[in-house]
Design a protein that fits this description.
alpha/beta; Malonyl-Coenzyme A Acyl Carrier Protein, domain 2; 309 residues; globular; 13 helices; four-stranded antiparallel β-sheet; four-stranded parallel β-sheet
């Protein structure tokens, strides 16, 4: 019997047309998107399915991504597929919380809509992020700590790929130091802010206020926090972890390693693209990884799981 984890991608995997085949062909998925549009007051089919600039603007990207992830999740659950643990990268953590049934879809949509706005407005200019390829984490951490200004690790994605974040001037200084210290490549990212840095603490505090109105239910299935890379089963921890997550490092590689350590042997990436599946190949090739981005992927996953049952 497979020990399955559902994993959800974060911002950056979005594309025009995402989720459209689910919306047009799966009634339970259509209901999810219609609910998200109703809760947020946004025309999400228009944002997700038609050529537009909004899809790449943080305040719209985040809610669009979560909507598509939960649409696909609903279609998968309707087929009777369940997980023993859930996790998501950054924004994807809200997909994981929805999958663990500790937060209602209505609350998740309202919260992520606010999160995107808070993060977009927190630091409209003056921040930067860069991917560092081919260097050990401890060396990157050391160089960041020695660089003048605000710069730190944003994402521990997988072996050989770590993202740094912070003030634009500090990130540029760190980039040069990292190259000199032997990094294979340092690639500036096209982002609208220095996500997961101290510069986003204010956005986290705004989110804390919004979270006061949200009810967190008891866990039936645990999730892993980006902040701690540990299984979370205590609902009283969730709100504070979501606040911290906005400005702290995303320990994605550590989350995956923890799940494998706990016996997970099958990972199903739910949402646009194959970003997490790519990371999985670098973290551990021994476990099975599947992804559901389009309707045809759902059929493939169901077929594969039935063969292995």
């Amino acid at each position: 019997m497979n020990k399955i984890a559902f994993i959800f991608p974060g911002q950056g995997a979005q594309y025009v047309g995402m989720g459209q085949d689910f919306y047009e062909n799966i009634e339970v998925s259509k209901k999810v998107m219609d609910l998200a549009s109703k809760v947020t007051g946004l025309n999400l089919p228009e944002i997700c399915f038609t050529e537009n600039e909004e899809i790449n603007v943080t305040e719209y990207t985040q809610i669009a991504m979560l909507t598509v992830e939960t649409m696909i999740l609903a279609a998968l659950e309707e087929k009777g597929i369940t997980s023993c643990v859930n996790a998501g990268l950054s924004l994807g953590e809200y997909g994981a919380l929805a999958a663990s049934k500790v937060i209602s879809l209505e609350d998740a949509f309202a919260l992520v809509r606010k999160r995107g706005i808070y993060m977009q407005k927190a630091v409209p200019t003056g921040g930067a992020m860069s991917a560092v390829l081919g260097m050990e984490a401890d060396k990157i951490e050391e160089i960041c700590s020695q660089t003048e200004g605000i710069v730190s690790v944003a994402n521990y994605n997988c072996p050989g790929q770590i993202v740094i974040t912070g003030e634009e001037s500090a990130v540029k200084k760190a980039e040069e130091a990292l190259k000199e210290a032997g990094a294979k490549r340092v690639v500036p990212l096209k982002v609208s802010g220095p996500f997961h840095s101290k510069m986003l603490v204010g956005a986290g505090e705004q989110l804390r206020e919004a979270l006061q109105e949200v009810e967190i239910a008891d866990f039936s299935v645990p999730y892993l926090s980006n902040v701690t890379a540990e299984y979370i089963t205590d609902k009283t921890q969730v709100k504070d972890l979501l606040v911290q997550q906005v400005s702290s490092s995303v320990r994605w590689q550590q989350c995956v390693e923890k799940m494998i350590e706990e016996g997970v042997d099958t990972f199903i990436e739910i949402g646009p693209g194959k970003t997490l599946s790519g990371f999985m190949r670098k973290i551990n090739r021994q476990v099975k990884t599947m992804n559901i981005d389009k309707l045809v992927d759902l059929d493939k996953v169901l077929e594969q799981l039935s063969q292995e049952a």
